[in-house]
Design brief:
Length: about 240
């Protein structure tokens, strides 16, 4: 028997929280709900759920702060719920370590699809790590060393601190060094869903990676933009 995936929902709206819990339980998940933001970090770190669904506006502690606090001790995917229309709030969530977001009002089927996509991505990564036919665990490009198992990056022997999204994108680009990857391919590989043509989170993450990898934003030598085609991780920087 397959063990039910454990989802941890942080949502203070009782009606919405109960609706999401009931729907996801019917879909075969085990759901734990927390209604206060200030109680959420300790519970997430203690319970280590398979995935966290995290509201942005919460009593006691906001979702962005929760995401930032748990990221060093929780490696699972975080899906944020936001009622705010400002794209900067969604960008801020991704910067703090969230893996995806869904806008309110929440459509249960959309939420379910995003959750399943994130869980598939985790399972795919675990399978690649465990399968003997996939021996690549570390990639080295001059002074840049990327270790997949440790989820660590060293640049000239100095650690580079990356969010989960940043690391996953860097690993994807580096694994295909010398090849151009378009946004649709990157989006599908990282998020498990088709690119809608509007989301600019990939471009934002590329910008952050260049800054952290000391790659000149105006004349990048490591992660290059190939106009009209996509991004290219250079074999030699």
């Amino acid at each position: 028997m397959t063990m039910r995936k454990h989802l941890f929902l942080v949502e203070d709206d009782q009606r919405l929280g109960d609706l999401i819990t009931s729907y996801l339980t019917q879909q075969g998940f085990s759901v734990t709900i927390e209604r206060r933001g200030d109680s959420a970090p300790a519970r997430i770190l203690d319970e280590q759920p398979d995935l966290v669904v995290l509201d942005l506006l919460l009593p006691g502690l906001d979702g962005l702060t929760i995401c930032q606090q748990v990221r060093t001790g929780y490696g699972g995917p975080i899906l944020m719920l936001t009622a705010l229309e400002d794209d900067m709030d969604q960008v801020a969530g991704l910067e703090m370590g969230a893996d995806d977001y869904v806008k309110k009002p929440v459509q249960p089927r959309v939420l379910l699809a995003r959750i399943r996509a994130l869980l598939r991505r985790v399972e795919k990564t675990a399978a690649e790590t465990d399968t003997a036919s996939v021996p690549i665990n570390e990639l080295v490009f001059g002074g840049l060393r990327i270790n997949h198992t440790a989820q660590s990056v060293l640049l000239n022997q100095q650690p580079v601190i990356l969010t989960t999204n940043e690391f996953n994108l860097l690993w994807l680009l580096a694994r295909h060094a010398g090849q151009i990857l378009d946004r649709a391919t990157i989006y599908r590989e990282l998020r498990g869903i088709d690119y809608d043509g509007l989301d600019r989170s990939v471009d934002l993450t590329i910008s952050h990676l260049r800054k952290k990898l000391e790659d000149d934003a105006d004349r990048p030598q490591r992660i290059k933009t190939v106009w009209g085609q996509g991004y290219l991780f250079a074999l030699q920087a």
